[in-house]
Each structure stands twice: as C-alpha cells, then as structure tokens.
Amino acid sequence: MDKPLPPALPAVLVRDAVEMALREDLGRAGDVTSLATLAPGARATAVMNVREAGVIAGMDLAQVAFAAMEAGLSTVRRAADGDQVEAGTAILEISGPARAVMSAERVALNYLNHLSGIASHTARFVAETAGTAARITCTRKTTPGLRALEKYAVRCGGGSNHRFGLDDAILIKDNHIAVCGSVTEALTRARAYAGHLTPIEIEVDTLDQFAEALDARAPVVLLDNMPPETLREAIAMNAGRAVLEASGGVDLHTVRAIAETGVDYISSSKITMAAGTLDIGLDIDIKE
Question: What's the pLDDT score for residue 285?
Fold first, then answer.
C-alpha cells in the first residue's frame, strides 16, 4: 500500500475551533489573573515539552491560539503533527507579551493534550496490526463539536476515517434491516436512493445475513461482533467480492487476532472514546 500524504486541517476549521475555545475561556472580562498580576509590558518566553512518549497532533491549533491573542507573539514549531516523540521533546517555542502567552496557554494545551492522546492511542492499534492488510478506522463516536479534529488526530496516528456524519455515506445497520424486513430489501432501497458517488455499506450479525448481502451484491459489508473463527469463515465465503470491515469487541487485546483473519478494515470507537491525553506541559520564564 502506498503511503498516504500527511493529514491536514483546513485553516478555517482551525481558526473557528480556536476562537470558540478562547471565547469560552476568556468569558466576559478576559484573563483577570494575568491582568491583575502581569505588567502590560512584561515579556515571556516559553517552551512546550512532551512529558511522555507519544504521537503529536494539534500543532496548528496551538500556534493559532497564541497568535490570536496578540499580533506580536511569535511561535517556532519544533515538531510536526504525526511525529512520534519521546519524553522530554520540545515541540513549540513561544515568545511575546506575557499576558497573551498565559491567556492562550490552556486552550493550546487542551487541544494538543487531547488530540495527541487520540493520535497516540490510534498508533498503538496500528502497531498491533503491523504486517497485516487490515487498516484501523475510527467511528462516529466522537466528542460533540470536535469530530473533525478528532478524526484528524486519528489520521495523525496512522489510522483512517470512517464516515464523518450521516450525510456522506449510507451505512445500513441492524435496525434499518429490521424495519425494511430483509438485507436484500434494504440494499435495494439504498441503491435506488443513492447517487453514483454515495458509498453503501451494510452491517450483518450472522453468516446467513452475510450470504444474503453477498447475493445482493453489497459492495462493503460490516461484520459486527463476530469472533475471529467466524470472520475467517466470512473471508472464505466472500472470495474477494466485497470490502470487509470488522467491528465490535475491538481493543488492544483483540485487534491483532481480528487483523490476522484477513479483513480489510477494523473499526473501533476506542481509538477516540477511550483515548487518554498525552502529557504535554508549558514551562515559562517571565522577563521584565
């Protein structure tokens, strides 16, 4: 598989996310602690340091947070999103008005801590599947309002993205099938509705449902909560006809066995919903 180009976030998404977070933090009166304790002319230099090994994500957000506070504040990037770094690595240098540095610090760190945590956790899943053809992918189980950023962090960690919302792909789940009456009927209706650029995937729980999906020419099938031995049976039945995704019961202890069955994709909500934060701190030196 060719190596994909580095992930990127549209500048407008970065700007909007940072402005929202800064407005939330600054409230109605601004950073009253810094206004009360730091002289207007005080300058500061600071370094963001990674305190544990991991994968970086969110550098644009951090830099824009500082830049949004003060035009005279400068930043120098020492790491890029997607970089695997060791504890003690300096990733960003900041210099400028002390009030601005202090006021932007938490927003910058919140994004970096959170997104780097997701990127690092994703990278662990990717490492567990090394040597197989399976790709790790996220789900729609994301923090409300942060989906685009969290899915970006998944890509920084070497994972891939599932659909971004209900509007960019048709994913027929068990409840859709129950209301439609059958796998075949659900697929028939989906094909009649979809445009030629709208992907269609169907979720199945049993091998009987899977056989029906294959007979109905499903292009992508999600094999839900199937143990590895059942997944292997599905692979044999498939004979290369459909793209296969495994989901359900996926964690760092099970993902290797799932990948070794030969599925194309493995989706897990845990790479976004169960990821911790990456410990990154800011060390500052105030200069008058």
Answer: 72
> In terms of domains, do 78 and 143 share one?
no
Crossing angle, helix 207-215 and helix 228-238, to 10 degrees?
Answer: 20
**Among the options 15, 78, 106, 147, which is catalytic?**
106
One domain, residues 203 and 228: yes
User: Which residue among 201, 203, 212, 245 is the active-site one?
Assistant: 203
**Same domain for 268 and 138:** yes
Q: What is the pLDDT of residue 3?
A: 74
The answer to the question of residue 197 being in a domain is yes
Question: 93 an active-site residue?
Answer: no
Residue 154 domain flag: yes
Q: Is 151 a catalytic residue?
A: no
Question: Tokens at residue 240, please?
Answer: 């290369």
From the list 141, 163, 191, 256, the catalytic residue is 141
All residue ranges of the chain with pLDDT < 50 are none
- Is 168 annotated as catalytic? no
Supply 36's token pair: 């009360």
Q: Would you call 106 a catalytic residue per the annotation? A: yes
Indicate the helix (H) or strand (E) that contains 189: helix 183-193
Instruction: Identify the CATH number of the domain in which residue 89 sits.
Output: 3.90.1170.20
Indicate which residue of 124, 140, 147, 173 is catalytic.
Answer: 173
Q: Parallel, antiparallel, or unpaired: how do β-strands 265-267 and 243-247 relate?
A: parallel
The pLDDT value given to residue 287: 57
pTM of the model: 0.95
CA distance 91 to 112: 10
Nearest by Cα to 163 from 220, 232, 234: 220
Q: Which of 60, 81, 224, 245 is catalytic?
A: 224
Q: Which helix (H) or strand (E) holds 176?
A: helix 174-180
- Residue 4: the pLDDT is 80
81 catalytic, yes or no?
A: no
